[in-house]
Amino acid sequence: MFRHQGKNRTFRHNLRLASNLSLVAGIVNSVGVLTISTLTTNVTGHFAYFSKELIVGQYTKAIPHLLYIFFFFLGAFVSNSFIEIATINKKKYIHTAPMFLEIFLIVLVGFWNDWAFTATADANQIAYILLFSMGLQNALVTKISLSTVRTTHLTGLFTDLGIEISQYFFYRNHPNAIKLRKNIFLKLSIIIFFFAGCILGTLLFYQIGIKALLAAALLITIALTMDNLIFYYNFTRRKFRKKGTKNILNGFKKRTNE
Fold it and tell me: How far apart are CA 256 and CA 250, in angstroms?
């Protein structure tokens, strides 16, 4: 899910990545809105709010919206910087640092009230951290999927989905129709899992409050664990298969020499 890049990535890799992290983004989105009444997975609306406060002269109210935008950008910048550093140093696990940082930040906010902070006074700080973590996530999935998957907002997805469904009506017998169907299915999966995350986040919020974010951290942890288990399973299977093939060849050579 996380390890494969470029030609090594398959539709299945992108689907697993999209479904899991869209669920995470949905949880963060709903919990952010319910906790601090702020969008914490995208910055589109914050441009409008920033412009409004700027025009009416409410500069102190405009600054937080500008910082919301900046922290999402900063998260994307930091995420890709980690990836580039790992790539330069030829590290196998380029996704590890951004994912672990995202888990840490989401857990930090999940226990916000337990750190003796006041959620009302620190609403902006919560928004900054969550927007930064979503910038981390969006940049990571965009990078490793070659811009095929985006998980933190749906505006562009609905645009692409509308275009591709329209194309499918005209080119359903075209040789690329199979690829088009896969693209449509992938985008629908992202939308469905994002919505499911919003529902799950809302249900959990009314039960345990801001700690509902811990479910998002748990999902990322499970995704990383499963990715490692699948990798080592496939690695071990290939290793034993090569060993078995080698033994067969050695036995054949031995019988030939006799």
Answer: 10
- What distance in Å separates the CA atoms of residue 115 and residue 107, rounded to the nearest whole number? 11
**pLDDT of 58-92, one tens digit each?**
999 999 999 999 999 999 999 999 999 988 887 77
Q: Which DSSP string corresponds to 172-231? A: TTSTTHHHHHHHHHHHHHHHHHHHHHHHHHHHHHHHHGGGGHHHHHHHHHHHHHHHHHHH
Query: What is the value of pTM for the model shown?
Result: 0.85
**Helix-strand-coil percent breakdown of the chain, rounded to 5?**
80, 0, 20
- What is the DSSP secondary-structure string of 69-80? HHHHHHHHHHHH
**Per-residue pLDDT reduced to its tens digit, 180-217:** 899 999 999 999 999 999 999 999 999 999 999 999 99
Radius of gyration of the chain (CA): 22
